[in-house]
Design brief:
Helix content: 10-25%
Strand content: 5-15%
CATH topology of one domain: Collagenase (Catalytic Domain)
Number of strands: 9
Distance between the termini: 17 Å
Length: about 260
């Protein structure tokens, strides 16, 4: 999911994405513009949905320690593009994306692309609820999702004026830069597995892609955190959540945060 939390924005029609900050960028101290999770997000658009109905309140928990899995700090700065493609999932404007993984890390580009494809097709994700269609391609993409070591992510993000401090994700003019540390370990604030947290990274950033320019706050203690909330900065009494929708199709929303 800071800047995320993570996958992860403006709608691009065959050109480069407008510069944005990621959900995790906010934690870096970079000011988030009024029209922009991270991020100065791109195009106008976002829809208003009913506020979530209350759920039983839950006790506040402390952030859990990060797993001790070793994550490479730096890599060569070169990337392999997943040589994979898929059929569009969802309905609405089509957005084509490529997946690239930095060379020398223990993740194959094809495996990462397959996982991201599954995330976008999830029954609680954007595509399943008519907010757009997404297609994995190996060339001529509308945006790129890069998974990079912390040092490489910092360099790519700093080129856009974003200080990610070896910890955060960001958005660039090309698409999303996912910090390998977040992809592998998740977030101490997120009460779920790293695999679930990867849903949050991708769903948050793709939320900007489909036109949701602002972030959301916690709607109330014990309620699910919106996917467009910068959950890595803290949950403020909400329950961590990686999906835009509940199981029965209700959009999880909250107050606008600039």
């Amino acid at each position: 999911m800071v800047l995320t939390t993570v996958v992860m924005s403006a709608i691009v029609g065959g050109g480069a994405l407008a510069m944005r900050y990621s959900a995790e960028t906010a934690a870096t101290g970079v000011q988030v513009p009024s029209a922009p999770d991270v991020t100065a997000s791109p195009s106008q658009g976002g829809t208003h949905s009913p506020r979530p109905s209350p759920v039983p309140s839950q006790p506040t928990r402390s952030p859990r320690p990060e797993p001790t899995t070793e994550v490479p700090v730096a890599g060569p700065g070169t990337f392999t593009t997943a040589q994979a493609s898929g059929t569009p999932v969802g309905s609405g404007p089509l957005r084509r994306y490529r997946v690239q993984v930095e060379d020398g890390i223990d993740i194959s580009a094809e495996d990462a692309a397959a996982e991201i494809q599954t995330i976008l097709a999830h029954e609680r994700s954007w595509a399943a609820h008519g907010r757009g269609s997404f297609q994995l391609v190996s060339s001529e993409a509308d945006f790129v999702i890069k998974i990079a070591t912390p040092a490489t992510a910092d360099r790519l993000c700093l080129a856009q004026g974003l200080d990610t401090r070896g910890e955060l994700n960001c958005e660039t003019s090309e698409g999303v830069v996912v910090n390998l540390r977040r992809w592998t370990l998740g977030s101490p604030q997120f009460d779920g597995t790293p695999a679930e947290y990867r849903h949050l990274i991708i769903n948050h950033e793709v939320g900007h892609e489909i036109g949701i320019r602002t972030h959301m706050g916690c709607p109330g203690p014990g309620q699910l955190a919106p996917v467009m909330m910068q959950q890595i900065k803290g949950l403020n009494g909400c329950l961590s959540n990686a999906w835009p929708y509940e199981k029965h199709g209700r959009y999880i929303t909250g107050p606008t945060v600039y």
